[in-house]
Amino acid sequence: MKNDLLRARYVTFALLGLVLTFYLSIALNWSFWLAGAAGFATAAALVVVLEIWTRLFSRRAAVSDGLRDVLGSELRIETQLALVFQQKIIEACSERDILEATLQTGGSLLHAQGASFVPFDEYAQSLPALMQGDVPASALQTWSARLKMPETRTTCKNCQVLHGGLGCVLIPTEVERVASARCFPLMVAGREAGVVNFFFPKDCELASAERIFLIEILFLAGQALENLRSRDQEIIALRYLQTVSAPKSDLTLLLNNLLENVQRALDTDFALLYLPGGLQSGIVSAPVLLSVLRSDSILPIDIPDQTFLDGLWQSALKSGQSISLENVNINNREMWKVLLTVPLVWHEKSPAGVMVLGSNSSQAFAPRQRVLLETLAAQAALLIQNARLMVQVEYQAVVDERARLAREIHDGLAQTLAFLKIQAAQMQSYLSRGELDRLTNTLQANYRTLSDAYLDARQAIDNLRRTPASSLRDWVGTVIVDFEQGSGLKVELDDACLDSAQFAPNVQAQLIRIVQEAFSNIRKHAQASHVWLIARKRDSLFFLAVRDDGSGFQPEQIELASRYGLRGMRERADGIGADFQIISRPGEGTTISLSLPVSVEEEL
Description:
- By secondary structure, this protein is of the alpha+beta class.
- 58% of the residues lie in helices and 17% in strands.
- The chain folds into 4 domains: 2-75, no CATH class; 97-238, GAF domain (Beta-Lactamase); 246-464, GAF domain (Beta-Lactamase), CATH 3.30.450.40; 466-604, 2-Layer Sandwich (Heat Shock Protein 90).
- A hairpin with a 2-residue loop joins strand 4 and strand 5 (191-200).
- The termini are far apart.
């Protein structure tokens, strides 16, 4: 090719020389030798100029082609990085997966020596950093330690340049081959979630295209983090709503709906829920198997039998982790191409059962799908645990209520009947002996006792029918009204702290029962003209007292019925952790008081 170009140059030179020679000799009447010399000289100059122009054009074309190849190569690299990054954030199961993909993609694009991400909390305070880079592990540890230092966080927080060279707090002297750092904020839902740092072996400027591409990568990462957080919040909200608002009787329906959603979402042939201990421990102990099959299947769908399910449950019980099987064969017959078993575990307790999904599709479950299934399995475990706890709570409530009613009947009605029985025997004796005066007095005492017993019975019935008030003040007010109507006495209420007193329903009920019993004793025995109810809150104690100006008593002089009533009040106080006291002297009235720790009030 070089010889052809050389011949072309010679031919061009000869032709130009001849043409110019003839032109000068004819047009200007120059001699042939003078015209030849001038013509060939001019031709040589023109050929040189043409050669220079040709070479410049060829070089420019080569540079343009090379630049086009470089730009095309960079574009292909950026496109490949973008596709890989997009695939990683689609498959990401956690925020760490997204951040690691961001650091890896940015580092590959910028040819960085290392990268880090410093997250910020909701108060713009930095948290432990995530490190990544082609440097020794000791250097990564040094970087991590430097990023955790308070002075580093303060300096970076006040930095406005987002670029540092040697001497920057992000670049410790112990780390070799690192000379500069570039920082980029990562925004999530309009808030700065942290800063991404890239470290380079030398100080360099980023190309405009690289900067734009990296900003787009960080924007996609921020969106992925926002979507991931939104998804997690939705799952938590769904778990909470279905747990707290669903009636206990709908537990089976909720679990069936859960299976239907799982089967449709993952497009499996079947979804099973196997509970070896039943739904409600202690009430139904037979195993429970709930199943949902694909509705549009033409061929019959095989599901595992109970023996196979027991084996899966035992394996999940031992490992506490999901079990994935492929190409499952039973008796030399292929049953399922994919089988996934997820244990129903809540807060590291023993599995309540297993969720089993099977399909004849060759596509395996993705990691993100397995994470979602484990979350749903935890939700099902929580529902089952709540149902079992509800049965236990209801059973214990029934036992406690029976014990309370038995105590009240024994201390009240039974003692009254025993007293009336003794009085009836005495009245028969008085009648047989003709002691009419004593018989009349005994009849009058019996009438008063029967009247008091009737009032006590009516009060007990009303208390059982009455719905607890919304606050302790409202309930105390109702009890005072009942007492004033039944006794004709006026109660002076000193309740400076009743509005702020908050107790659990069972504690509040016991406090009211003690007040009711104290009022009952005043009505029947005190012969008082004034009654006070006092509520105080002092330091860490809540005080409640009922006082009267009645006859008072000595402990050894207490009647049998009153003794049982006082004992019942003390037992109720002990049951809620309160200190119970009785202060009384003949002729000076009686004060019944209790004190309850405020810490108990706050915890309940």
